Amino acid sequence: MPLTRDQLAMRAARELRDGFIVNLGIGIPTLVANYIPKGMDVWLQSENGLLGIGPFPTDDKVDADLINAGKQTITARPGSSFFSSAESFAMIRGGHIDMCILGAMQVSQSGDLANWMVPGKLVKGMGGAMDLVAGVRRVIVVMEHSAKAKDGGKPVAKFVSQCSLPLTGKRCVHMLITDLAAFSFDEAKSRFVLIELAPDVTIEQVREQTEAAFDVAANVTTVSV
């Protein structure tokens, strides 16, 4: 059974480490803030100028002036700090962010990422993704494995042999987590290795919905969330 959005966020949260400074992208990645393991001290950073994002607020705790880069209302944990977006991007470009968790429209078999625009569609700007993939030490992508076909036909692969959309970065993705499986990028072989499967999902089902070539680990486990 494919993972839900919250289960994807839970799986991504398992990659966090104590003391990490982490940037969360728009969409599914923002949910990771709700699933930081108990006892782990992780500092979430937002491009618009906040270090120390907390879980999403309950209705009675919403502060309209406190938002993330995706304009969602958030909370700030004790010890958090506020600063300008210029200082925020200096942190990113200076290599001071340990990890970013991003969404994607396409990921290629060689680790390329496309997540900022679809040609012909209006976009407000490229956001911070290009800076993140260039300056952050570890890049994790969380996305649905396939996109729904407009005509109701076969799902469209998002894990592809080569990105057809404008690139955000080349050879920048270290780990890919989809609703069907989790893949780790093997630098030596320059390709992804399937390491985990969603419950009741088979390798054959993953291959059917994947255009990219990938290897399979000797001991594939079930995604634990």
Q: Mind explaining what this structure looks like?
A:
The protein has 225 residues and is an alpha/beta fold. The protein has four helices and 15 strands. It has a ten-stranded mixed β-sheet, sandwiched between helices. Strands 7-6-11 form a three-stranded mixed β-sheet, with no helix packed on it. The longest helix has 9 residues, at 5-13.
Secondary structure elements and pairings:
Layout: H1 5-13, E1 21-24, E2 43-46, E3 50-53, E4 76-82, H2 85-93, E5 99-102, E6 106-108, E7 113-114, H3 129-135, E8 138-143, E9 146-147, E10 156-157, E11 159-160, E12 175-178, E13 181-186, E14 191-197, H4 203-208, E15 215-222
Parallel strand pairs: 1-2, 1-5, 5-8, 6-11, 8-12, 14-15
Antiparallel strand pairs: 2-3, 3-4, 6-7, 9-10, 12-13, 13-14
Helicity range: 10-25%
What structural class do you assign from the helix and strand content?
alpha/beta
Approximately what portion of the residues adopt beta-strand conformation? 25-35%
**What is the number of E strands?**
15
Overall average pLDDT? 92
Which strand order spans the largest sheet, edge to edge or round the barrel? 4-3-2-1-5-8-12-13-14-15
